[in-house]
Design brief:
seven-stranded antiparallel β-sheet, 149 residues, alpha+beta, Alpha-D-Glucose-1,6-Bisphosphate, Chain A, domain 4
Length: 149
């Protein structure tokens, strides 16, 4: 059985703004991770960092199609993630995130599906808030304890 996790969101911004928000770490860190070692370019390997959680992940960029697709491989064990961008109108972009090639079975697969679905939903929610309203939502930052006053 091949499991594909998918989450999606309409973001009311042009496709080039939304796509760029995911490849440019100076923008992405406003709604997802706290730091990155570089811009997403095909063939590159970058490190994404969540300082609060003392977590890092190596991200290998497998494919980039401008304003259409970002395909990465990440995690340990590795899985693939596609960020798919579809122009709905000049000011609306539909973003789908698909996580697949999951190296898990049984309860570990169920746990991963729950975690990944929630995580990518939170990322899309945060991206929508940031890109549409220019508010840094802190959704990822506030998702898990410890919480700071």
């Amino acid at each position: 059985m091949s499991v594909v996790i998918e989450t999606q969101m309409l973001i009311r911004k042009s496709i080039n703004i939304v796509f760029n928000a995911f490849v440019d770490p100076l923008i992405t860190q406003k709604f997802w991770f706290s730091a990155s070692s570089g811009y997403l370019e095909e063939g590159a390997t970058v490190e994404w960092i969540w300082e609060k959680y003392k977590a890092t992940v190596q991200v290998h960029v497998l494919k980039i199609k401008e304003n259409e697709l970002i395909r990465i491989e990440w995690g340990e064990p590795k899985s693939k993630v596609d960020f798919i961008f579809e122009k709905v109108s000049s000011i609306q972009t539909y973003v789908r995130i698909k996580n697949y090639d999951l190296p898990y079975q049984d309860q570990a697969l169920i746990d991963f599906v729950i975690d990944s679905t929630g995580g990518f939903t939170t990322v899309l929610d945060a991206a929508k808030i940031y890109l549409e309203h220019d508010i840094e939502p802190n959704l990822v930052l506030d998702n898990f304890p410890p919480f700071e006053a």
